[in-house]
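Do me a favour: review this protein, sequence plus structure tokens, and tell me how the chain folds. Record follows.
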Amino acid sequence: MSWKITAFAARDVVQAALVAHEDAWDWDHDVVIAGSEIAEDKPDDWQLEAWLDRKPAKADRAAIGALFAGGAPKLLVEELPDEDWVTLSQQGVEPIREGVFYVHTPDYPATDDAGVRDFVIPASQAFGTGQHATTAGCLAMLSHMKASGVVVRNLADIGTGTGLLAFAGLHLWPRARAVASDIDAVCGPVVAENADNNGVRLGDGGGKLAMVIAEGMDHPLLDAAGPYDLLIANILAGPLVELAPDFAGSVEAGGSVLLAGLLEKQEATVRAAYRRAGFRLAARMVRGDWSILWLRRRAIR
């Protein structure tokens, strides 16, 4: 990415803009959007950032400004050095400990604590080193599911990024068959490298992870490997709502879905979509402004 547009506003304003972005059906997907707080000691001061691989045109600035219903704040446009901004954004992040997992970049040493699974996930071109509240919350919820007696023989991680959540699922249920997928082709080699670095076996079968590039559930392997008794999706609220019927058709009765990537203010909409698709809430947690949901598919009568 060589250009960035930044807008500073209150948390609710930026979150509303993120929701508007998800609802923008004609959005140019070459323009990548993210929102975050500016500093930990100022939780109500947020920024919306947009990255482009071209100099922003008037139409680009207008599209970003239109995300703000009450009028756009000042848009700051800057040219970036020729560097991998995803990698830079993840360098130097602190290790995390969630549930039975310890996740860190190679900048930090592994843990030797008993009963803790250590994962080293380098900063890379794919998201998901564990530090984001949604990824960390998923690790905590997976640990809670295991402690609650959930048995998993067949799992899928949709929108896997670095592969971390699929790796975590295989650690908790080591005999399970696992499939990870992502819409971004760059994730294929990233997941393969991370699997090798963390002792995760690739392939098709029990205790192994198969990786595919797919949009949603649209891949022959995802279809053939189902039905699943655990499906993980840490993506965005809009796609989660759209995928609810597909997920319902891919999860067996009594099986679980773990959903994340949704703001707490979007939770009611997501839960309503999954309630219509035949799921009931098993547990939820909130991390910052983000909800993590564990739902189970109702038994068919």
User: Anything to note?
Assistant: Confidence is low (pLDDT under 50) at residues 87-92, 125-131. The first helix runs from residue 11 to 23. DSSP finds nine helices and 14 strands in the chain.
